[in-house]
């Protein structure tokens, strides 16, 4: 299959490109920099120059492909309105290009906000609706194209897709521990995060692209609920700093913007996804990765 991948040189995107190429697919990666071009070509992928604001490149990449994986996002935490706007325009452009084709469109999302007081499941619809919602409401936007002949699929990632080289949320939490001289959790640390190793997440994307039915919601979740207290203890143990608690009111001051997320319970299951795709995670767990030095420790 000729697959167009946005975010192809990013954290999850790089692993996904490797997974797709390893399975015999042809990959065309969207690239905005010379470094990204060099990296993708070095892997054996083709390149389409452009970025999320280049709607013509997005449209051309989708039209010329047999399947699309959309993993790119601006992740501008200082201007989320702009990130959400760009995300919605990008997904709409890709979906419109695929109308009536029956081709797969895998769109990245997350498990945050799916449920209160219990782990989120694939049966839970995304509460993000409309342009002003998180990620521009793109899960619901993409799935609405199922009735227009697009095999749209939502891939919801755990809040930490971890591994050696991860520069996402877990790296920010570890950086806060170095900066503050203590490894903290919020409150009693009973809030939990789901987690998945990047290799397992990439394999899920590939299986979803190949097999998932139109309208499927897939959960890239290997561990349902890792308590934030245990995450803080693992980081503290490796850094050799004390473990402490901060209040929810002080979380953002201590951690930066990530503190608001670290205070939340972001647990989720993946039972349906595993059964649907015969997906069995095999990568190391989050605490194992932390203790092995995946975050530069």
Which SSEs are present, and which pair or pack?
Layout: E1 2-6, H1 11-22, E2 26-31, H2 34-43, E3 46-49, H3 55-63, E4 67-70, H4 80-98, E5 104-110, H5 138-143, E6 151-157, E7 160-162, H6 169-180, E8 183-186, E9 192-197, H7 198-211, E10 217-220, E11 223-227, H8 228-239, E12 243-246, H9 251-255, H10 258-262, H11 271-277, H12 286-291
Parallel strand pairs: 1-2, 1-4, 2-3, 4-5, 5-6, 6-10, 7-9, 8-12
Antiparallel strand pairs: 9-11
Helix pairs in contact: 1-7, 3-4
Describe this structure in words.
- It is built from twelve helices and twelve strands.
- It has 297 residues and is α/β, with parallel strands linked by helices.
- It folds into two domains: 2-159 and 196-221, NAD(P)-binding Rossmann-like Domain (Rossmann fold); 163-195 and 224-291, UDP-galactose 4-epimerase, domain 1, CATH 3.90.25.10.
- The strands form three sheets. It has a seven-stranded parallel beta sheet with strand order 3-2-1-4-5-6-10, with helices on both faces. The chain has a three-stranded mixed beta sheet with strand order 7-9-11. The protein has a two-stranded parallel sheet with strand order 8-12.
- Strand 4 (67-70), helix 4 and strand 5 form a beta-alpha-beta unit.
- Helix 1 crosses helix 7 (198-211) and helix 3 runs parallel beside helix 4 (80-98).
- The mean pLDDT is 96.
- Pfam families: Epimerase.
- Residues 3-212 form the NAD-dependent epimerase/dehydratase domain.
